[in-house]
Amino acid sequence: MSALLKSARVPGRKRQSLLPPYGPKLAAGRRMPVELLRRHFQTAVELEHSTLPPYLCALYSMDEQRNRFAYAAVQGVAMEEMLHMVQAANILVAIGGTPALNTPHFIPEYPTYLPHSDKAFLVPLQKFSPETLEIFLKIEKPAADCAPPEPNHYHTIGQFYAALRDNIVAWGDEIFTGDPRWQIGPDHYYGGGGQIIPVYNASDAVEAINQIVGQGEGIDGTIEDSDHVLFGEEIEYAHYFRFNEIVEARRYRPGDSAHLPPTGAPVEVDWQSALNFRPNPKLADYPVGSPLWQATLDFNKIYMKLLNAIQVACTGRPNYVLDAVPLMYELKYKAIALMNMPLGNAEQQTAGPSFEYVPI
Amino acid sequence: MESEIFDVVIVGSGIAGSVLAKTLTQAGKRVLLLEAGLQAGAELRPEEAFATYQHYVETFHDKAIPATNGPYPDIPEAPSPNVLQIQAATPYYTGYLVQKGPLPFASDCLRAPGGTTLHWLGNVPRMLPNDFKMKTLYGQGVDWPISYEDLVPYYELAEREIGVAGDVAAQRGPDMGRDDYGADYVFPMLEIPPSYQDQVWKLRSQNLTVMLDGEPYVVDCVSMPQGRNSIPNPRYRPGAIVWDKQIGRFVIDHETPTYPVTGSLWSPYTGERCEGNASCVPICPVQAKYNALKTLKKADQRRLTIVTQAVASKLLIDRQTGEVTGIEYKRYRSLEDPTYETHTATGRLYVLAGSALENPKLLLASDAANSSDQVGRNLMDHMVMLAWGLFPEKVYPYRGPGCTTYIPTFRDGAFRKDFAAWISPLDNWGWSWPTGAPGSDVSTAVGTLGLFGKALRDYIADRVTRQALLHFECEQLPEPDNRITIDPQYIDVLGNPRPVIHYDASPYMRKSFAAAKKVATQIFAANGIEDFTEYKPSDADYVTWEGNGYTFEGAGHIVGTHRMGNDPKTSVVKPSQQCWDHPNLYLVGCGNMPTLGTSNPTLTMTALTFMAAESILKQLEGVRQ
């Protein structure tokens, strides 16, 4: 195992030097107690997870053939959010914490504010539409260059992670007391929007945070994400800019400014073909035992199974990540089936996935 | 193009051509790669590669009977054989292949960027040491000019390049064991887990004794090594294959960071593991299955020029020196527009990396490399006899890739003096091959039985889930009259010749069908499988032996038509894979194989190609060979 992890991690380490190294300047911040830092990383796990249901709802409502560009973009972002969630759990485990992904309040009640945010906007579960994409843009908005790190009531996700990174740096390796065997590595986690980084020390944690923030918001005010810097891959734009390409129906070109609209080739976006499911579905919308109720319950059970698999994987049995793969497919099929069940209302809407906690 | 001089001109971008393009450019050589297929298929940038591949996947989904080449463009200017065109009555001229008979040749390949690896299954067992010594040991066929031991280092390179998933310890059987791989050797990735139905098969087949000609044979079921992504083996040392000029060999650079898993062309995070889609043939929807474009993408693109829609039509040869002076090719406009311009590609060395149908065709059309009169002869394939039946319980085929387990028991033995050896993969695709299931089951249920609603669902759920298929890939021997020729009567739209094929099944083969059927019957009986096997005189390749009829299918393992050897009078290429007749012409691909063994040939052919790449680099660098 160690030989593999070492070799698999080589590109990350080498490329890491391309990013500004953390040093005394960043380390000057005040340290928060380790227990509080762990709570914040649990928040990070919840934060990364909270964007998944909205992204998946938009994704599953799309006709992949008629919306190839937008589908690939939203799918790519959703996969990276999944990676971020597991990555954040890896850091939490590394600093001696125990992530909790399958507790009753882990899934937010949609529409929801982002966990611990400044409550500037609500995030709903709704179909792929211009309104939905406007919200996605707000979620992924890059940090302003001068925005200070904020562990609580942050305005952007970047601010939140910057605060956590500063604390990691300030503490150094001494807080990395977690069981290294609990780390999820690239042999377990795959196909999920990036290469997972097992975390054994402060340097690994900073690298992991840089990947999370870089994929979401871009690095150093560019439109590009951090993967091609960290892993030497082809350029892929950060989340905000991938969503903005859909909104603007136009591609960015390398070198486009982060502050201006894209100037590349136009792309076709078909808003009309999205499955028209009623926003923010709830199990309680339907009579107990009805077909809609049953299908919604079945969907939620699959989602809980998925969260359970990740929970087990993040708490000592990394192999269980493998169980999540077929569940992801099942989740998609069940969501699309719901989006094809008409409600018979005037708006001609359908049922949809509700993403609610159910005991299983 | 014509003004530029390349170190090497390669014809064909299948796995052989792609391995050469990668290794030669990375060693600093400038390479021109001519590919007959469409430009879209050679796009390696993520977005374009994704768009092309999704088009393939959609075409596959849209076709009622996709067969092996169904997802891919059918190009009039560069036709491929089509297994759906095979007819029982020979001769016929309607497909791409001109089938002179007496039996039709039943295999296909694909002319497209990436070649037949787009639709291959991905099974990569090695050949057995004895396979290289058929004449000496069994008085059949010919010996190879090289041994298994000679090939071992190149097998390792091929397994690294393809990214083989498998369990070395499981590779046992007659004439195969741990020692043949080396005590410490492991594959780059862990084995693909056995499918559910394999586990059911094993319950009553593992260690089953079957009788054949009065001799007992113990059936073994072992894990199939595969060219599809799995969990990286922590004991495998990742590294890049690099050319060491000093010692004139490829070595592994363990310092260069590499991850043993190569994802899809469009994203390193797609296709990182086999997801169990059962459509490996004709297409893996996530590209977890290896294809040659993954290798081509790793070539040093600064030194690689790829010209697509370029059909090589003639080798230009200086008849005094035997040197090839250029390759004439016809560059057509598009799928719909066969208008073409003729160009000549020039380089220091030339390599034909087409299939064992296309290489000999081009050589014959150029009157090249044929002083031995062996070009086009010794056409071989695995003749595949199928046996199918219904399990008493549900075994759920289509869960996982096409084959995760095989029976090695009859790969080698004294019987090879009398009849052909075979390998038996446990197939995971129900009756799709022999009957067109599950579509044919639906037709029967609705059309013949008049079922609908729940009764229809119950019928399908009962029948499709119990379908068992066992197949026997019998090793065809080299025979001079099984051959490809050309005839000016038969040309394609560009005026290039079509392969004219003469083909038959010898008594050695027919006897092996009879033997395999006896084994199938015993294995079925032990498993409680109700036998539904039916060989009909109307089948395309129906043959008889001692009063009984058998039908064989093609395996898509087209080999032997320009074989290597130590004697220029009986072989086309030297062991270095340089032509005896032309000092600057190399042939690579399955055509070089003197015999077939019972392995799917791609791995062995890829190993040979790494060997050829060393010969080519040594020749370019003036090293005495």
The CATH first-level class of chain A comes to Mainly Alpha
SS field, number of helical segments of chain B: 13
Q: How much helix, percentage-wise, in residues of chain B?
A: 10-25%
> Tell me, what's the shape of chain A?
globular
Mean pLDDT of chain A: 83
| Helical/strand content category of chain A | mainly alpha
Provide the structure class of chain B. Answer: alpha+beta
- The percentage of residues in β strands of chain B lies in 15-25%
> So what's the overall shape of chain B?
globular
Strand elements of chain A, count: 0
Q: Biggest sheet of chain B: strands, sense, closure?
A: 8 strands, antiparallel
Distance between the termini of chain A: 34 Å
- Gross CATH architecture of chain A: Up-down Bundle
pLDDT < 50 stretches of chain B: none
What is the succession of H and E elements of chain A? HHHHHHHHHHHH
Number of separate structural domains of chain A: 1
**Proportion of β residues of chain A?**
under 5%
List the topology elements.
The complex is a heterodimer of chains A (360) and B (625).
Chain A: H1 2-16, H2 24-27, H3 34-50, H4 52-61, H5 68-94, H6 130-139, H7 157-171, H8 202-217, H9 227-230, H10 239-248, H11 291-314, H12 321-338
Chain B: E1 6-11, H1 15-26, E2 31-34, H2 46-62, E3 98-102, H3 134-138, H4 148-162, H5 178-181, H6 196-205, E4 209-212, E5 215-218, E6 222-223, E7 240-244, E8 249-253, H7 292-297, E9 304-307, E10 310-317, E11 324-332, E12 340-345, E13 347-352, H8 358-365, E14 382-390, E15 405-407, E16 422-425, H9 432-435, H10 439-448, H11 453-463, E17 467-475, E18 483-485, E19 500-503, H12 507-527, E20 530-531, E21 542-545, E22 548-554, E23 585-587, H13 602-620
Parallel strand pairs in B: 1-2, 1-13, 2-9, 3-19, 13-23
Antiparallel strand pairs in B: 4-5, 6-15, 7-8, 10-11, 11-12, 14-17, 14-20, 14-22, 15-16, 16-17, 18-19, 21-22
Helix pairs in contact in B: 1-13, 4-13, 10-11
